[in-house]
UniProtKB/TrEMBL annotation:
It comes from Saccharomyces cerevisiae x Saccharomyces kudriavzevii (strain VIN7) (Yeast). Fe cation binds at E198, H297, H314, H316. UDP-alpha-D-glucose binds at residues 30-33, 63, 79-80, 169, 175-177, 184, 329-330, 334-335, 341. The lineage of its organism: Eukaryota, Fungi, Dikarya, Ascomycota, Saccharomycotina. Its cofactor is Zn(2+); Fe cation. This is Galactose-1-phosphate uridylyltransferase. PROSITE patterns: GAL_P_UDP_TRANSF_I (PS00117). Its EC number is 2.7.7.12. Binds 1 zinc ion per subunit. Binds 1 Fe cation per subunit.
Length: 366
C-alpha cells in the first residue's frame, strides 16, 4: 500500500466540540458522490407587503381573536400558543426520598414561563437580509429590552424567570408556520439543556486553563482565518471547527460580553451590520431565501458568580441546505444512532461563504 499524507479535505476524521463535550464525524470524500436523494422545492419570494390573512401583519386579527395594533416597527407580544405558562397547577413531588426505580428513572420537574413573538417588521414580505440596517437595530433593541424587562421581573420576584431563549426559525423547511418576518423568545424558570452544557464546558475550561474558552477560540480563528467568514470591530462570524450543519456558523463577540443586556449602541450597530451581511451571503449562496434556525446563547437572567463569569454572548445559525436550493441535509442513520456527521469540511464551507457578496442581495441583481 502506497503511503499517503493525511488530507483533511479528503480523509475521514472526527472533530471535538468543546462547547458540548461531543464529537462529530467528518467524511469529506463523500461530497463527491452523486446525489439521488430528496430535493426540496426552491423558495421563491412571492409574498405581498401586506397579507390580510396573516395573523402577524399590522391591524390584523390574531388566531385567538386578539388584534394587532397598526405597528410601524418591531412589535413584541405574548405568544397566543405559548409552550410554557405561568399559571398552572403545582406538580406533586415524592418527598419520601426512597431509592425506588421510579425515583431513579422517572424524574420530572415542573417548569413555568412565558413565550413571546417578535415581529421584525410590519412588512410581510421582508427577511433579515432585505431589511434596512436601522430596522435591524430596532430588532436588536427589542431583544435587549425583552431581556432586561424579564430580568427586572425576576429580580423583583414578580416572575420566576431564569433564562430567555431568543431565536428565529426562517422558512418552512425549518418548521416556520408563518412567513411574516418574526422570531420568538421562550422564557423558563430553568436553564435549557444546551445552554447549561455550554456553561459547564466554559467553567471546566476556565478551571483547567485559567482562560475563557471563547476568548481563546476567537483568538485562534482570527489567527488561522480558514473558517472566518466575516469580521468587524465587535464580532466575528465563523464556520465552527466542529460544525454539524453544512453551512452552520457562529457569531461571537470579540470581547467578553455576558449578554445582550450589556450592549451599547456600537455593539448593536455592529451586530445588525454583520447579521445583514451574513444572511445576504446565505441567500446568495444558492440564490434562494435561505432557511435556518438561529438563536442567541448568553448569560441567564440576573446571573451571578460562575454563571455570570462563564457567560459569553454568541449566536448559532443552523441552516439545512447542503448542495443547492433544493437539496437538504438530514440527520439520519449513523447521525442519529452514532454521532453527527458531515461531508463538506468547515473550511470548505467557510471558503464558499467568504467569497460571496455580503452587501448586494441576489434579488437586487435580477
Amino acid at each position: 500500500m502506497t503511503a499517503q499524507q493525511f488530507d483533511f479535505s479528503d480523509h475521514s476524521h472526527r472533530r471535538y466540540n468543546p462547547l458540548t463535550d461531543s464529537w462529530i464525524l467528518v467524511s469529506p470524500h463523500r461530497a463527491k458522490r452523486p446525489w439521488l436523494g430528496q430535493q426540496e422545492a426552491a423558495c421563491k419570494p412571492t409574498s405581498p407587503v401586506y397579507d390580510p390573512k396573516c395573523y402577524l401583519c399590522p391591524g390584523n386579527e390574531r388566531a385567538t381573536g386578539g388584534q394587532n395594533p397598526k405597528y410601524e416597527s418591531t412589535y413584541v407580544f405574548p405568544n397566543d400558543y405559548a409552550a410554557v405558562k405561568i399559571d398552572q397547577p403545582v406538580l406533586p413531588q415524592d418527598d419520601s426520598g426512597k431509592d425506588t426505580l421510579r425515583n431513579r428513572l422517572f424524574k420530572v420537574q415542573s417548569v413555568r414561563g412565558n413565550c413571546f413573538v417578535i415581529c421584525f417588521s410590519p412588512k410581510h414580505n421582508l427577511t433579515i437580509p432585505q431589511m434596512k440596517h436601522s430596522d435591524l437595530v430596532h430588532v436588536i433593541d427589542a431583544w435587549q429590552n425583552l431581556y432586561n424587562d424579564l430580568a427586572r421581573e425576576a429580580r423583583e420576584n414578580l416572575k420566576p424567570f431564569k433564562y430567555v431563549q431568543i431565536f428565529e426559525n426562517k422558512g418552512t423547511a425549518m418548521g416556520c408556520s408563518n412567513l411574516h418576518p418574526h422570531g420568538q423568545a421562550w422564557c423558563l424558570e430553568a436553564i435549557p439543556s444546551e445552554v447549561s452544557q455550554e456553561l459547564k464546558s466554559f467553567g471546566k475550561y476556565k478551571y483547567e486553563h485559567n482562560a475563557d474558552l471563547l476568548a481563546d477560540y476567537v483568538k485562534l480563528e482570527l489567527e488561522e482565518k480558514s473558517r472566518l467568514v466575516l469580521e468587524n470591530e465587535s464580532f466575528i462570524v465563523v464556520v465552527p471547527y466542529w460544525a454539524v450543519w453544512p453551512f452552520e456558523v457562529m457569531v461571537v463577540s470579540k470581547k467578553k460580553i455576558p449578554s445582550i443586556g450589556q450592549f451599547d449602541q456600537t455593539l448593536k450597530d455592529n451586530l445588525a451590520l454583520i447579521l445583514k451581511q451574513l444572511t445576504i451571503k446565505y441567500d446568495n449562496l444558492f440564490e434562494t431565501s435561505f432557511p435556518y434556525s438561529m438563536g442567541i446563547h448568553q448569560a441567564p437572567l440576573n446571573a451571578k458568580g460562575d454563571e455570570l463569569n462563564n457567560s459569553w454572548f454568541h449566536m448559532h445559525f443552523y441552516p439545512p441546505l447542503l448542495r443547492s436550493a433544493t437539496v437538504r441535509k438530514f440527520l439520519v442513520g449513523f447521525e442519529l444512532l452514532g454521532e453527527p456527521q458531515r461531508d463538506l469540511t468547515p473550511e470548505q464551507a467557510a471558503d464558499k461563504l467568504r467569497n460571496l457578496d455580503g452587501k448586494v442581495h441576489y434579488l437586487e441583481k435580477i
